[in-house]
Every structure is written in structure tokens, then in C-alpha cells.
Design goal:
Structural class: mainly alpha
Number of helices: 5
Number of strands: 2
Number of domains: 1
Order of helices and strands: HHHHHEE
Largest sheet: 2 strands, antiparallel
Length: 114
């Protein structure tokens, strides 16, 4: 089952790359921006509960989809790209086994313990 979920996340990451390729943004921006949502781990400096909340907020795919759709609706490419990056980053993290976090510790995720 874990391999099937990983393949699903890999497909979603590929979708993010494909949608990004449809924008007018240069490819190198994808490489620069794809790691930015990971900065949400900074919340763990405060503690595991706020850390998990902040991390989960920026790694929830619904946020990426909502930001992307808002960008399309408003014809605002920066919003579109932001949504794509949020979505693709979340999928990429899950490919590597990093899921949404429990409030107990960074290593406790919905995909199991890291």
C-alpha cells in the first residue's frame, strides 16, 4: 500500500511540474521555489504544537489548490505559481515519506514515524 501511495504522490508532483511548465516563468524558478514551503519547519523552534500547525498549514494540498485557483480566477500568475509550488512541494515531501505532522513531534506524521 505504501508503494501505491508513493506512486500517487509522485504523479501529483509530476502534475505540479507540468502545470508549472505551462506558465511563463523560467524553469530555474521552480528549482529555487520548490524548497521554500519547507521553511515552515521554523515553527518547531517555538514548540511541537505550533510547529505542527504551521508546517501542516503550508503542506496541506488544499491550500496550494485554493491559491492556484484564485490565481487563475484573478489572472494573477504569481498566485498561480505560489499555488503550484505549495502543491508540488507537498507531493514531493510525501514521496520522501514526510507527511502532515502530529502535534507530538516532527518525526510523527500521518504516513508513519520518520
Amino acid at each position: 500500500m505504501k508503494k501505491l501511495l508513493t506512486l500517487e504522490e509522485l504523479a501529483q508532483f509530476g502534475l505540479g511540474i507540468f502545470i508549472f511548465s505551462q506558465t511563463s516563468c523560467a524553469w530555474w524558478w521552480f528549482l529555487v521555489l520548490i524548497l521554500l514551503p519547507g521553511l515552515s519547519m521554523i515553527g518547531y523552534l517555538i514548540g511541537p504544537k505550533p510547529g505542527a500547525w504551521l508546517y501542516n498549514f503550508f503542506h496541506h494540498k488544499a491550500l496550494g489548490i485554493a491559491v492556484f485557483v484564485a490565481g487563475v480566477y484573478l489572472s494573477h500568475e504569481v498566485l498561480e505559481i505560489t499555488g503550484i509550488i505549495l502543491f508540488a512541494h507537498s507531493a514531493m515531501d510525501r514521496v520522501f515519506g514526510y507527511g502532515l505532522k502530529h502535534e507530538t513531534a516532527f518525526k510523527d506524521t500521518n504516513m508513519g514515524r520518520i
